[in-house]
Amino acid sequence: MRKMPSKDILVLLSSNEIKEQIRNILLGISTFNIHFQKILDHAINDIQSHYYKVIVIDEDFRKDSKFNTLMSVLFSEYLNSETVILLNDNSFDNLQFYLRYNITCLIEKPIKKDLLKAIIFCKLELLEQYKNKLIQNYGISLYPHLNYLIVKGCKIYLSKSQLDIIFFLLTNNNPCESRSILKYLSYCRDRDITQSYLSANIAQLKKKFTKHTGLVVIKNRKGFGYYISI
Questions:
Q1: Predicted confidence band of residue 3 (pLDDT cuts 50, 70, 90)
Q2: Where in the chain is the domain with CATH 1.10.10.10?
Q3: Where in the chain is the domain with CATH 3.40.50.2300?
């Protein structure tokens, strides 16, 4: 008999670097427990006895003779939609192997931290919860649920797109690559966002900051993206 949903995370990998990335992504979120496994047999037993909200599997384990058994168990236990595969090989044949098991969340290595973070937060249903908290960084206090920020004692109201851009800049390491911001905005809007759309919103944000504080708060890194500096 399967246990009741535990909202836990199972991570099957051997890389300490990826292990630390996942730990850092969930830093401060005490409601979820992370279970790390290095042995496929143990992982298979865990999957058969627990419900996991997220299962992250390093494709390095594809070499193990039990890997196909693991895939079959995920499929039979209806956990394929919760599974994230960290890919070594993005060839058509390899992708087709996972798609046969209805596993569609495939991330190519080396892993982009922001992408993995967004996927894990989405699967844990944390995106809205995370955005409703007060975010403080670089001298800015952002209130996402109230659509404004405070900087240098000035309250500045934001549009939805401006809010999402500031949220991304405050919660990721400076400077932020334009391509990463576009991916995040596209995810939030459920449609493709263009560079011109991003540039226009950045320009509007710069004007608001300058009008209220006299400062250039958002700056460009030529050929790369944007960063906050006060």
A1: very low
A2: 132-228
A3: 8-127
Beta pairing partners, 54:
9
Residue 75: count of CB within 10 angstroms of its CB: 15
pLDDT in tens, 104-132: 899 998 888 778 888 888 877 666 555 56
Rounded distance, CA 29 to CA 191, Å? 29
CATH of range 132-228; options 3.60.21.10, 1.20.1420.30, 2.60.120.260, 1.10.10.10? 1.10.10.10
The architecture CATH gives domain 8-127: 3-Layer(aba) Sandwich (3.40)
pLDDT tens figures, 183-226: 888 877 778 889 999 999 999 999 999 999 998 899 988 888 99
